[in-house]
Write a structure and sequence with these properties.
Helix content: 25-40%
CATH class: Alpha Beta
Order of helices and strands: HEEHHEHEEEEHEEHH
Subunit structure: Homodimer.
Strand order of the largest sheet: 4-3-7-8-9
CATH architecture: 3-Layer(aba) Sandwich
Pfam family, one: Pribosyltran
Number of domains: 1
Number of strands: 9
Main location: cytoplasm
Strand content: 25-35%
Keywords: Cytoplasm, Glycosyltransferase, Purine salvage, Transferase
Family: Belongs to the purine/pyrimidine phosphoribosyltransferase family.
Length: about 210
Amino acid sequence: MFAAENGLKGDPRLQAISEAIRVVPHFPKPGIMFQDITTLLLDHKTFKHVVDIFVDRYRDMDISVVAGVEARGFMFGPSIALAIGAKFVPLRKPRKLPGEVISEAYELEYGTDCLEMHVGAVQPGERALVIDDLIATGGTLSAAIRLLERVGAEVVECGCVIGLPEVKGQCRLNGKPLYILVEPRELDNEICSSSAWADCRNNGASLEQMAVNV
């Protein structure tokens, strides 16, 4: 669900978060509308809004693990974990973690990838929250859920800063709830219209490509 549908309708923090995200068309390749959250991180007040909203939601859910998906889940996950008294567990791409790991593969539009987690980082019965910056189809988050469940953790919810409304009801999240702060932005300095998105569509971009942030 979107935060505005769950008690935060009209909350000025959501507008500030949305406005702080920069849209870069045709990056890193033609047909992609890149949702750049680095501009949000430059504004410490808006960055704090993101963390505060997630903390308010999760502080009383008895969560002991915040799992952040590489790479931009690392930007928000540790702050949320500290505030709710949980440990932070990085879920990384292949060959990034030293020592023994457990891996979970997932499908991309053209090929496959996988997430890895240190063996022993999460214990059976722990309650986990998965954090990432953006969700389009849900493939990466689903892999994160499977990874945590394989070691016996209970995944309480997945939280994302940005989510595509077109696929809100189609995400493959293994039955787990999803909490999203804002929708993707249109191009900066333009009247909100479908022209920019249509341009990317005409270049053959999928929904996931149009909001990619990897």
